[in-house]
User: Fold this.
Amino acid sequence: MKRVVRGALLAGVLLASSPAGAAGNSLATDPSVPTTTSGVAFSVSTGGNRNSVSVEVGCGSNYGTVVNVVLDADGNGTSQRIYPPAGSCTADLVIPKQIGRSRVLATITFSVT
Assistant:
């Protein structure tokens, strides 16, 4: 009986400490279908405990930028609007650390028309 309880407690601790068991992080585009004239902003939710995060955006091999997002006490924020070129793009919600070693919290892909 004690082994079963210990095993269940250990599994719960491992799940709670893993990234998959952590509070959900979300990243969404605004508008949901951006155009080259409307641009795109990002709505961010991290679950708190951070003052800011960054959104790294890449569109093909000819466009890339990083947008910093200030978060409220609940871990929510909206980025400034950017105007990427038409095409397929990827955005990563990251905790900036050292160059090339950012921790990715969420990733989305979107198309700019």
Q: What stands out?
A: Residues 4-21 have pLDDT under 50 and may be disordered. The chain is about 15% helix and 40% strand. The CA atoms of residues 49 and 75 lie 7 Å apart. The first helix runs from residue 2 to 17.
